[in-house]
Design goal:
The protein is of the alpha/beta class. It folds into 2 domains: 238 residues, 3-Layer(bba) Sandwich (FAD/NAD(P)-binding domain), CATH 3.50.50; 179 residues, D-Amino Acid Oxidase, subunit A, domain 2 (D-Amino Acid Oxidase, Chain A, domain 2), CATH 3.30.9. 36% of the residues lie in helices and 25% in strands. It is built from 12 helices and 17 strands. Strands 3, 4, 5, 6, 11, 12, 13, 14 and 15 form a 9-stranded mixed β-sheet that branches. Strands 1, 2, 7, 8, 9, 10, 16 and 17 form an 8-stranded mixed β-sheet that branches. Helix 2 packs parallel to helix 7, helix 2 runs parallel beside helix 10 and helix 4 crosses helix 10. The longest helix has 24 residues. It starts with 7 loop residues before the first helix and ends with a helix.
């Protein structure tokens, strides 16, 4: 039976999650959701609220993957940046995706309230500039977003203010986004699971989909000891889609990232580091992201790998980056270190769409999945129930390419590119 990795998140649950059954025998439903992370749970909730009979299959346990291991940061923009979308697809299209990203953040608050989810949510996040040129870009970005998108939750932080708000002298300044925030991701995932169960969703753990077959009546999802006959399916596997052979696997790349979590900080350090409890994400290619937990531990992540082999190297790099950003934590004990897989797309924009009228999917949230997965589930459910919506069309307009190099060479290519980008970060290029 699957267990959560040894992380701060798993050990800090207010109460342990009850085990859910494994699917056996044959079952029927309107919608079968494959994947028990944020996007799968969100799809199940939204579909059940619209009257569908829903079965959700999770290959391990709910929240076992990235949804229960991530940095817990909530950002209201796609990883590519809305400016990149605007340049390539035009202002109208960018505005539509921007509005969707704002709705994604609002949806988290809505679900926390409606389903009484306790997940330690806090408001406010800082984009920290690692170079003077990036800081100037931030200043221009703030002015543009206020003028064009009427987004008034941004505040420029000069170096002195950023030093105070973060507790590090490493940065040249930044932008405070009061619309951003952070939460305990595993508590949130379990809260979404309980919400789905309360709506009548049948949730099965340790039930990996082995094969997907189409027939005249719908879809057959084959499990080791059972089968689900569904009218439609939603594939929400993200980094764990390998083996289903749906033709969308090569549009995402699984990559590994690690997080360290310190012992609780003393009062002096608490007053010095992130005094207003903001989360932080910087401008490095392999960006550092960090925040304080509810118990005032430093949760710090950043090192990214593509080989899926260099675990010890990534752990060391993460610890090194923590001490680089916060030298005052040099002698603070690290209580936990864990890692996991996320899925990125070539352009870092989520890949949300449909293969045909029976098979829908959402994947490739590229490190920004805490917010976007929720709205992705809503978009999938709306299209499954009512037909294609303008929101789905907005994502389908963004064409996702397969990663270059094929199955054999895509990882070496990304490793090379990542190494070059890290050198550029070091020299502030």
């Amino acid at each position: 039976m699957s267990q959560y990795p040894n992380s701060y998140y798993a050990t800090s649950l207010s109460q342990q999650k009850d085990a859910l059954p494994t699917l056996i025998d044959d079952h029927e439903c309107d919608l079968c959701v494959i994947g028990g992370g944020f996007s799968g749970l969100s799809t199940a909730i939204e579909a059940a609220e619209r009257g569908l009979k829903v079965i959700l299959l999770e290959q391990n346990i709910i929240g076992w993957g990235a949804s229960g291991r991530n940095g817990g940061q909530i950002w209201n923009d796609v990883a590519w940046g809305i400016d990149g979308i605007e340049k390539k697809y035009g202002l109208k299209h960018a505005m539509q995706l921007w509005n969707i990203s704002q709705a994604a953040v609002d949806l988290i608050d809505e679900r926390i309230k409606n389903f009484n989810i306790e997940c330690d949510k806090k408001s406010g996040g800082i984009h920290a500039a690692t170079s003077l040129s990036k800081f100037k870009e931030y200043e221009n970005d703030l002015k543009y977003k206020l003028k064009t998108y009427n987004y008034d939750k941004l505040e420029v932080l000069d170096k002195a203010t950023a030093d105070h708000e973060i507790g590090s002298s490493l940065y040249y300044g930044g932008i405070l986004d009061r619309g951003a925030g952070h939460l305990h991701p595993l508590k949130y995932a379990i809260g979404l699971m309980n919400a789905a169960l309360s709506l009548g969703v049948k949730v099965y753990e340790n039930s990996p989909a082995k094969k997907i077959l189409q027939n005249s009546n719908g879809i057959e999802v084959l499990i080791e000891n059972g089968k689900v006959n569904a009218k439609k399916i939603a594939v929400c596997c993200n980094a764990y889609i390998e083996g289903l052979n749906l033709g969308i696997e090569n549009k995402v790349m699984p990559c590994e990232t690690y997080i360290v979590c310190t012992e609780p900080l003393n009062i002096d350090l608490q007053q010095n580091i992130l005094p207003n409890d903001y989360c932080v994400s910087d401008t490095n290619f392999d960006l550092n992201y960090y925040r304080l937990s509810e118990s005032k531990r430093m949760i710090f992540g950043g090192a990214v790998g593509y080989s899926l082999k260099n675990v010890e190297g990534l752990k060391k790099r993460t610890k090194k980056q923590l001490n680089r950003v916060f030298p005052q934590l040099q002698n603070i004990k690290v209580d936990y270190i864990w890692g996991g897989l996320i899925a990125i797309t070539v352009n870092r924009v989520p890949d949300i769409g449909m293969i045909n009228e029976k098979i829908f999917y959402a994947q490739g949230f590229s490190g920004h999945g805490v917010a976007f997965t929720g709205i992705a589930g809503k978009i999938l459910a709306e299209n499954i129930v009512s037909g294609k919506t303008s929101e789905m069309e907005a994502f389908e307009k963004i064409k996702h390419r397969n990663f270059p190099g094929g199955r054999l060479f895509r990882m070496p290519l990304l490793v090379t590119i990542s190494a070059m980008q890290r050198m550029m970060d070091i020299f502030n290029v």
